[in-house]
Amino acid sequence: MLCGRHVRLHDLLLRGRRNVTKSVVRSHSHAPSRIRNIGVVAHIDAGKTTVTERILFETGKLRSPGNIKHGTTTTDYLECEQRRGITVNSAFVQTSWRDTLINIIDTPGHIDFNFEVERSLRVLDGSLMVIDGTRGVEAQTVTVWRQLEKFGIPSIIFLNKLDRERRNLDVCMSSILECLSTVPIIVNQPVLDERNQLVDVNDDFSPETLTDIVESLAGVDDEMEDLYFSHDCDVTRISRAEIRDCIVKLHRKRKIIPVCHGSGITGVGIRSCLDFITSFLPSSDTVVSRLPAELQNSVCGVVFKSSLDHNKGVLCQARLYSGQLKARSRLLNTRTGTVNQVSSLFSVDADLMSQMDSCQGGEITVISGCKDFRTGDIYVDSSWETRTDELRQLIES
What we know:
Largest sheet: 9 strands, antiparallel
Number of strands: 20
Helix content: 25-40%
Shape: globular
Distance between the termini: 38 Å
Number of helices: 11
Oligomer: single chain
Radius of gyration: 22 Å
Mean pLDDT: 83
């Protein structure tokens, strides 16, 4: 539970006019396996921030969703963002869905802020790529996709704006296949009323649609191909569980990308999308298994953003991969070889910060007091200070 006075992150990072209470502390009840660190990425005006806002509303984080036109969205809190109606600064928010903590970074969609997107991606476990359902894949969609591939981040696609009459699902699916060079697999479908208006989504696929799904999976998976032919190409004899397991397996290998449908404005499809986020995207503890064994039980993390505050000095937004980090801990900067003491830790929620006494592997936090930390720095427990050569070999491996 969070306690103590909230502080505006914008004020701390850009103005430094407010003080942070020294009291407080909180602890999470979520194990790393129940944490998802995801980024919401898109081409500008695809509806990324609106989708993020609706996610916060549908999960009970907000009483009512904000509106970009009114400058009331949670993640676009800077004055220039509210005035221009675009995301400039990557904003971090937390929410939960079905006992899973979801840490969301809402990233800029404009090409001028690619650097802001890339430094955020390196701390993510997965991403939600929002595509305008009336336009399909656009230029910045391709750029962000390449960045995701660079860092090996699995994604799911949310086809947005399907409440509009100009929606074109065939164009969207074709553009995903052609421009992103990956196989799109629909995991739900839009439901329209008699006026051709979007009212819901479901997974009650027709035999024809199910055949298309299975054949797409069989084209990239030998086991599904064998299963398909062993049943004489009758998809009704293949269970939904077998199809789902195949989708999950291929998605983790990044051979396919699940596609869900909906509208950020109306909220249709958002809850279904949240189910796919928690079931398809990897948990925060998957990174730990890729760390060298010697670091898996030790404090290890990376700084993905740093700023200078007038009162607090260097403030670092950081991802903790393993171990438990506490206030007053001593950390070794692997780049400089120097040891820094953590003054305070803060939990971040958009432009609000709350002081905390500790954080665990899988979480994202703000660290103060580490004056020589910079963006991209890897930090570990100070006990490695006398073993820097061994540590360097482990990191390089």
